Each structure stands twice: as structure tokens, then as C-alpha cells.
């Protein structure tokens, strides 16, 4: 049995090394949405695993490569870690105090894109492996890693990848990419999360923008068309209005309610951290807020763009408009079915 | 009486000079919405008039300065020209074949921001004055110019400026900034245009953007709030829904209809120039299209901005969203009253 006190001590003694290695990983851009640095980051992650004695393979997919790694341990059980090396776009850049890909240690915290999601978690796991190997000489079980590069862009190729590599990925248990502590410093364990269907809606009503004094009352306006389409997806009552969207969705079970009721009430924490003054649908906190947060399907506008967006006024009628919309899906909803319902509705 | 043939001949002979002078003026940025180059452009315009023997004054306002110029002529009648030296923002820059402030002569046409609106018209007038002076030695009447720098940003300070300088601006007639020929090369004369009320609507629902997996079903979303607010301003039937907006608006008179019916039908011209496939409200062309174009109040979205707008997806719930909205006003509507109705509605 490994000595956890020794493992902790090792990690503490080698804290600077782990921060240095994380900084190197964060400094390597890997913005999936912009296809920026993906191959380079996959290679870097592969090297990090190879240094720990893992056999690695950098496996192509239809998109960003998957890094697969494996190392034998004492038992014949296998633990699989799923992580990802891609990060979200860093824009808007003006909100960063330091450049997103130049990690900066301030007040005991490391700032940089991907420090938390998910390069930090991967690095933490690798340093824990270092600690176990240093104190115990061997891993307690076989360890596999699957580290993909499309988590932030809906893991488009992962499903096929897993189907094609079932044998290679076979394991007795899998630990998902992240984890952490809540505001009370209590470690959190997630047993599931909602799915996602992310779409971009685009409208084009003319070949060029028109002076707004000319076309305002006779030409179609792409921005208006987009507004009206979006306003049919969800109303101010927050209910998704796409016909069929809620069909067959089961409400949380009694056991779900019981487990969620055991969570701390995050209402005040959310208000102070995000500056929201209240919650939707009359929610004030407690188990009802917690249930709404994770058991309800969502329709979130993530971005809007049309026409002139600079300072001051420009009298222009836009020919183009677009919106990015993120639907979070609950059990018994699939992205394919939801996309079909959305198409049928629009 | 001046000899118009000689005037035409002078203009033709000096075409290169007039294009060169226009190019210099266009090369001086003067983007009112971005407060870029306004003082410099006012000085340049003043120099252009001073070269023609005008007495000039560059007069401060609460915003961009007004260039006032005056030169005596043969009669004691006074003609006032109103022009403006400010231009619209040149964005989106990627749609320009050549830089907007580097005028470029291609296929016999000069391209650059402000070539048409309104630096070209001002330069054309000054070269006509050159031609008259060269052929006739004297102007036929007193000429005054008032050249402002806020036309593209709603002429916020012009009303006060005119009230404070009534005597200086006194004239027997005034010719407005632009003019041109229609698609048949027939010179157009406008006897009036709609007014404008341009607003920016901004929403802020949180102090920072939130991951869309967290806040989607419990935090207010600035983009959604904006969509719902906008969708109450105008519906897909194109009618403005702000209570009271249409009160007291007189329909076009029989004389208006008669004059508009004498215009050529622009339907096909609009379709080919702007790439629109049809018109709003079932309009197909003829006098009804012409009347709708200029006699109806409009509510045009000129710009939308919120959240992530780059390539690919970013799972973010925006804390801020904004829209630029241009209302065109018809007789008996005032910006003040319309703004009050809009505020009361929202």
C-alpha cells in the first residue's frame, strides 16, 4: 500500500517543478476553435508522458490528434484518465491582465489560458504519478491516458475514435478530465454532466451592406431576421420553445433531489463571484437552484455579431448577422435529434 | 451672365487637379464616430476655401468644429452651401480592395472613404467656383459655406450652432450637402429627407462572462435580454411596436404620390446593386415601393455585439450585449419624443 503522507510530501517539495512544467504546457497555445498549435501541443503532451515511462502514441483523427499513453502497474486492473490539451479562445484579450499564453504567477495563483481547464489537471496527475513512482517504485495499477484536442469544440471525432480503439482503451474505471474543490475547499466529484449541441446561426439578406437611410423600410435586414429567429427559440420565461424539445425528458428523481439537497447552497457564492443580482425563474437558492443548474436543458446565446460594432454610430443596414448558440442536453436528449428539431423549427 | 459652356470646359481641362485635390482630402481621415482626425480635416477644408479667396473661420462647437466660409459676389443675394467633412467608419476593413484612406483610381472611378459622402461634393463645388472665377472673374452672388464634422453622428451640436450664428448664416437659399445622378444619369434634386434618432442599447447582467455550462439555466444572459428587448421594437410584419410611435403621422398626400409616381421604378436596380431577392411587406416596385422607401418611419438594427464572435465555438454566457439602432423619422416625429417613447416602452 502506498504511503500517502510521503506522496503529499513529495508533491510539496517538488511544487516549483510542477508549476514550471505546467507553465511550459500553458505557454504552448492550443486553441481548438482557431486550429492554433494543436499538433505542437499534442507532441508536447506526448513528451511529458514519455518522460514518465509511458508508451505513447499520437493518433490522428479527422481533427486534432489524440495522445494515448499506457504504463503497467502492480495489479492487473486498469485505470483510464481522460484529459484534453485544447483550450478555449482567449478573447476578449483586453480583459487579461497578462498575456493568456505567458503564464504569470501572482498572489500564489498561476494565470494563463488552460491553467485550470485542463492543462493543470493533466499536470497534477502526472506529478502525482511522479510522487508515487518516487515513493513506491511502481504504479498500483495499469494507467492509461487518452488526451484529446477537441473537448472545447464538442469532441466531434472522439466518438468514432473510441469505437475504433475499444480494445486499446479498455479499462476498469475512468476518471474524467477535471475536478477541484468547491468554495469551502471540499473536493468535488462529478458523476455526470449535461451534453452539448452547439450551433452557429447565420443570416445573409443582401450581397452588401446598405446605407440605413435607403433600405430601412424596404430591404430585408439580416440582424432583424436573426433577432426574430432567436426570439422564437426561447422566451423571457426561459422555456425553450422549439417544438418537441422537452419531449421525453424525465424530471430529477427523488434520489437526485436528495443528493443535490446535500450540496451547499451556492446562491451567495454565485452572486459575489459573478456579480449577478438574482437568478432566473424566481429561483433564490437551495436545492431548487441546484437542480435547475444541472437538470434542465439550456439554450444559451454565446455570441452575437452583425453590422457596425465600433464606437459611435454608423448608419448601416447589415447584410449579414450571426449567433452562436449552445444547447445543453439532459438524459434522453441527443445532439442529432435536437439539431433536427431546431432545423424543423427554423 | 456666365458662360456655362466655358465653365464645363474649364472643369474638364482641370479634371486631374480636382481629382488630386479630392484625393488629398480623402487621404485625411475624419471618422466622427471614432473622433479620428477631425481637427486636422477641418483645418484642411479651411485651407481649401482660403485658397479660393474665401474668408474662413474654424468655429468650435461642443463636438467637431464647423468650418464657416464666405465670399462676396456680384448680386446681393446669398447662396449657402451645407457640407460636412466627417465620414462613416471604414470598417469592415477586409471588404476594401484598397485601404480606405489611400484613394485609388480604378476603371475611371476614385475609391476611398468619403469620395462620395461628402468630400467629393464639396470638392466639386469648389472646382465649379474655380471655373466660374476663371471664366467670369466674379461669383454671381455671395457664397457662404457651413461645413460641419458631425453629419455622420447625428449633427448633435449643429442645432445650437445654427441658433447661435443665425446672422452669420443668413442666406436666400441653401443647397444641402450632396446630390448626384440616378442610374439613368438623370440629376436628382431632393427637397427633403427623413430625420434620425440613433440609439445604442446596452445590457449588462453580470460582472464577468460565465462558462455556459454553469449559468445557462440559472443566470441572466445579456444577449438574451437584448434579443427579447429588440424583438418588442419591431416584429416580422415590419411594423414598429413602440406604443405611440405612429401617432399623428400623416400618410403621403395625393401630391406626394403624384410626384413619387413620376420617379423611375428602382426595383430591378436595387435587386442587382444590393443583391436583395425581394422587398419587405410584399412590395414589388412602382410607386408603392418608392413611397415606403421615403415616407415610412424605420427601425433599423445597424449593429449587434455580444460574447464570442471569432471562429469556431466558445462556451460562454455573455455578461454584456449591445445593439445600435437607427430610427428614421417622418414629418411630425421628433427625436426627443421618439426617445421618450422608446424609454417608456423599454
What do you see in this structure?
- Two copies of one chain form a homodimer.
- Chain A is globular, with a radius of gyration of 24 Å.
- The N and C termini of chain A lie far apart (59 Å).
- In chain A, a hairpin with a 6-residue loop joins strand 1 and strand 2 (66-71).
- In chain A, the strands form five sheets. Chain A has a five-stranded mixed beta sheet, covered by helices on one side.
- Chain A is built from twelve helices and 14 strands.
- By secondary structure, chain A is α+β, with helices and mostly antiparallel strands.
- Chain A has helices at residues 4-13, 15-27, 38-50, 119-136, 158-164, 166-169, 212-215, 222-231, 254-261, 267-274, 286-295, 335-345, and strands at 55-59, 66-71, 78-84, 104-106, 109-111, 142-148, 173-175, 180-181, 187-188, 195-204, 210-211, 298-307, 316-317, 320-329.
- In chain A, 34% of the residues lie in helices and 21% in strands.
- In chain A, helix 1 (4-13) packs across helix 4 (119-136), helix 2 runs antiparallel to helix 4 (119-136) and helix 9 packs across helix 11.
- Chain A has two domains: 4-178, Aminopeptidase (3-Layer(aba) Sandwich), CATH 3.40.630.10; 195-345, Alpha-Beta Plaits, CATH 3.30.70.
- The interface between A and B is large, with 82 and 82 residues.
- Strand 12 of chain A pairs antiparallel with strand 12 (298-307) of chain B, so a sheet runs across the interface.
Amino acid at each position: 500500500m502506498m504511503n500517502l503522507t510521503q506522496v503529499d510530501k513529495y508533491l510539496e517539495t517538488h511544487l516549483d517543478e510542477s508549476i514550471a512544467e505546467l507553465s511550459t504546457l500553458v505557454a504552448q497555445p492550443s486553441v481548438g476553435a482557431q486550429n492554433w498549435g494543436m499538433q505542437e501541443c499534442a507532441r508536447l503532451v506526448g513528451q511529458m508522458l514519455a518522460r514518465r515511462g509511458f508508451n505513447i502514441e499520437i493518433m490522428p483523427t479527422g481533427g486534432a490528434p489524440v495522445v494515448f499513453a499506457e504504463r503497467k502497474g502492480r495489479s492487473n486492473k486498469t485505470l483510464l484518465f481522460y484529459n484534453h490539451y485544447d483550450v478555449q479562445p482567449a478573447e476578449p484579450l483586453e480583459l487579461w491582465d497578462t498575456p493568456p499564453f505567458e503564464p504569470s504567477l501572482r498572489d500564489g495563483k498561476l494565470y494563463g489560458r488552460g491553467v485550470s481547464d485542463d492543462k493543470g489537471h493533466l499536470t497534477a496527475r502526472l506529478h502525482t504519478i511522479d510522487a508515487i513512482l518516487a515513493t513506491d517504485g511502481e504504479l498500483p495499477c495499469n494507467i492509461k491516458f487518452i488526451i484529446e484536442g477537441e473537448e472545447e469544440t464538442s469532441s466531434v471525432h472522439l466518438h468514432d475514435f473510441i469505437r475504433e480503439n475499444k480494445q486499446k482503451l479498455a479499462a476498469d474505471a475512468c476518471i474524467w478530465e477535471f475536478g477541484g474543490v468547491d468554495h469551502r475547499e471540499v473536493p468535488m466529484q462529478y458523476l455526470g454532466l449535461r451534453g452539448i449541441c452547439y450551433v452557429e446561426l447565420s443570416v445573409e439578406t443582401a450581397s452588401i451592406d446598405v446605407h440605413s437611410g435607403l433600405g430601412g423600410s424596404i430591404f430585408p435586414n439580416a440582424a432583424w431576421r436573426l433577432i426574430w429567429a432567436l426570439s422564437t427559440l426561447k422566451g423571457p420565461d426561459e422555456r425553450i420553445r422549439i417544438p418537441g424539445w422537452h419531449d421525453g425528458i424525465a424530471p430529477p428523481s427523488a434520489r437526485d433531489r436528495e443528493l443535490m439537497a446535500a450540496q451547499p447552497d451556492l446562491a451567495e457564492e454565485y452572486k459575489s463571484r459573478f456579480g449577478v443580482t438574482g437568478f432566473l425563474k424566481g429561483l433564490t437558492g437551495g436545492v431548487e437552484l441546484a437542480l435547475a443548474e444541472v437538470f434542465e436543458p439550456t439554450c444559451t446565446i454565446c455570441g452575437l455579431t452583425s453590422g457596425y460594432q465600433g464606437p459611435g454610430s454608423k448608419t448601416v443596414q447589415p447584410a449579414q448577422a450571426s449567433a452562436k448558440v449552445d444547447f445543453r442536453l439532459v438524459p434522453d436528449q441527443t445532439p442529432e435529434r435536437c439539431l433536427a428539431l431546431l432545423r424543423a423549427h427554423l
